[in-house]
Amino acid sequence: MVQNIRDMDELKALLKSAENKLVVIEFSAKWCGPCKRMYPLFHEMSVQYRNVMFANVDVDNARELAQIYHIKAIPTFQMFKQAQKVTLFSRMKRTICCYRSGSLSEPYLADDGNE
Q: Which residues form the Thioredoxin domain (predicted)?
């Protein structure tokens, strides 16, 4: 399930409740074509990977969060672990590209305890 985040209080609550889980946040907008195309895959991954928490921030409705997290283009994905931002974009991008190209029969996110 993808949780919608509207402000910093909701984001802090999500990160706190995640404890040791990876949190993937998609920054997007309703009018954004690539965001609309990404939504089904992002939602599918949220259902499949219960050990990961997924959230969405609509940059038009949460301008403060977009500014704080330096969102310059959408969709943008940011990942957090133990409330700290981690750099995993290249792995997520590679996973999505492989999944869409048919190289993977289903999305794959490693759960090796290091992410």
A: 1-115
* pTM assigned to the model: 0.74
Please, which residues have CB within 8 angstroms of residue 98's CB and are 6 or more apart in sequence? Answer: 104, 108
Q: Which one of the listed residues 15, 24, 25, 32 is annotated catalytic?
A: 32
User: pLDDT (tens digit, 9 = 90+) per residue, 72-107?
Assistant: 999 999 999 988 888 655 455 656 665 555 544 544
The answer to whether 107 and 48 have CB atoms below 8 angstroms apart is: yes
Q: How many CB atoms lie within 10 A of CB 80?
A: 20
Concerning whether 32 is annotated as a catalytic residue, the answer is yes
List 5, 22, 23, 35, catalytic entry: 35
